[in-house]
Amino acid sequence: MRFDPRSVPGILRFAIALLLLWSLPSPVPTVPTAAGVPSLAVLDHDGTPRAGEPVVIVAEERFDTATPTGDQTLRIAGPGDDPASLDPALARDLSTSFLCRQIFRGLTRLEAGVEPVPELADRIEIDAVGLVYTFRLRADAVFHDGTTIVADDVVYSLNRALKPTTAGGEVSLLAGPAYLSDILGAADVTAGRADHLVGVRALDPRTVEIRLAAPRATFLTKLAGPPAAIVDRRDPEGGGEWWWRSPNGSGPFRVERWEPEKELVLSGHDAYAPGPPHLSRVEIVLGADASSPFNLYQAGGIDLTDVPPTAVDRAEDPDGELADELVVTPQLAVAYLAFRPDEPPMDDPRVRRAVRLAFPRAKLARVGYGGHRLAAEGILPPGTLGRDWPVADGAYNVDAARAELAASAYGDGAAIPPIRVYGAGTAGAEALRDVLAVELGLRVEVVSVDWPEFNDGLRRRAYPAYELYWQADFPDPESFLWALFGGDSPDNYLGYRNRDFDRLLAEAAGTLDPAERAAIYARAHQALIDDGVVLPLYHDIEYTVAKPYVRGLEVTPLGVLGLEGIWLER
């Protein structure tokens, strides 16, 4: 889920120089937005809002048009470093979440990356209030060894995903609270005050009831996340510390072989209840061999990969060899800088506003990234809930920025301390450093940190400012505004607290009507921007290339989620 240091490429020095010198207005690239799908928590099967009425959602039979021919082995590149764990309860970065999603699944999944539909459940009933969800498991749902998946497995897995003991007592290592905190009793389990969720129980071997603390429009969507996946309790309880290296999973693929820092091989789970995958094997390159996946793709070593920014122009060339292999997909993702409002000099709102006014974000997207990123007005990407999210923040204006700085507490000639920004990818911070030095005379110190250390520092809220790339866990404003800045969010790395902002988030989370929710989130979004604690940089656009024989590839606004729909025509 969420963040990946490789997603923030470096910016060339000459591009930064151009960024500083370019002063004429420049166009911002336009991209199509993703289709917004209102939450199924308040929808009937036809998609019409039915607020105040019970809802029944039945799994639809998947219509298979695949025509696989030849060897069904897909080759892809994985992370440069081995994943720290394939335990879905601990999946807190994009590459780990992707791998976990192939091996483990839960009650729901995201259709096309936006719509929650039944997965290992075949029927979902929601009461008229939106508090009680009843799930009936598929009769043929089994773990990889053929053992039937029953309701007690669901109860066990949801509880385990929230227990501190799952992460050795380190609650901040758990991914579960970001997805499952809506369930009645979740806070008590995470805090160690209870050893089980009072809101989850097995009614019979195939039926699970989940009660929420309050109605939540996004619950089914979040239930599709890796932490809600079903785990065989025999693995963590009897498989030893490294059980996740060869787990008895619940998803469409099983671990066949794992050579650390070399290769992870998955094989298809033929008894996967929603439908067996077409691929027989997936070979995932790891370690140093995975460090340059685009080069590996061009050499024929892998079958699909992302295109780095420096190669996008070549990939888009209509006369080039890659044009017919390219898929372009706007992502629900944002790169941003965040500043603690209690750390000088960003403790002064006028300094924060001066920094925002002085930084030409459109030029960063256009020059620094060659027009292959979308300049960010705010945190929320276009297409979230099927709409744009404009903010009133004042356009790029260096004169206004200098006036704000002069009117600040530091404008009387007092020494202004440097702004220290940490990151595993620091392209935006480096651009900010060069811009502020020229335009405002401010010092920005950029501290590049290795990914594991940076991740740990975020978790401990150790940084006065940081740069981060964040991809939505699920297609909703909650996955940005609450996840990153909510007062009670486990991923609020700033320790940000704003009572009015939190009140709006709580109101939006409990509002089931999509239009009303969007209006409330728009107000919360504006309040966050007005506070100046965040400087959005860009929204991402995914450029993916796949060999001509790769069919059924679906790149969603959340990236590639599952591989089970892919087949090869060799």
Description:
With 570 residues, this protein is α+β, with helices and mostly antiparallel strands. The protein folds into two domains: 65-273 and 547-568, Periplasmic binding protein-like II (D-Maltodextrin-Binding Protein, domain 2, 3-Layer(aba) Sandwich); 330-542, Dipeptide-binding Protein, Domain 3 (Dipeptide-binding Protein, domain 3, Roll), CATH 3.10.105.10. It is built from 17 helices and 20 strands. Strands 1-5-6-8-7 form a five-stranded antiparallel β-sheet, covered by helices on one side. Strand 7 (200-204) and strand 8 form a beta hairpin. The longest helix has 18 residues, at 514-531. Mean pLDDT is 89; it is low at 5-50.
Structure, briefly:
25% of the residues lie in helices and 19% in strands.
